Amino acid sequence: PMQQQKRQPELVEGNLPVFVFPTELIFYADDQSTHKQVLTLYNPYEFALKFKVFCTTPNKYAVVDASGAVKPQCCVDIVIRHRDVRASYYGVIDKFRLQVSEQSQRKALGKKEIIATLLPSAKEQQQQKEEEEKLIKEHLAESVFFEQTLCQP
Fold first, then answer.
1. Which among 46, 64, 92, 97 has most CB atoms closer than 10 A?
2. 83 occurs within a structural domain
3. Which has the higher per-residue pLDDT, 45 or 107?
């Protein structure tokens, strides 16, 4: 019988998992410290990666080092700054695409989308979250109560 040749798996275009954290950026208009955020791109592979950052609305953001390389088993920080904070942009979802390729190859091996949103206030968000949590807790307490009363003989 023919010996099966062990081959290096082909790196298929577009299929390489891309590891980025976070995958969502939220900028708050009233909080200056959130206007600059960091995306971390991890390279868990045995080969170096090249990366490029694309954006649906490049005029709104400044990306420091929008392209570069990540050594094998290293990571790189990509700084994204919101540079056009205004009320008409509240709630608008922008997208960044992080595209990676192998250093020696031209083709894109993988990509990841990151969404970015500008919100008016972190405080408002916090209140909303607390409200939601309160409702969920009340709801849980109720359903637990019902289950308990049902189980009584």
1. 97
2. yes
3. 45
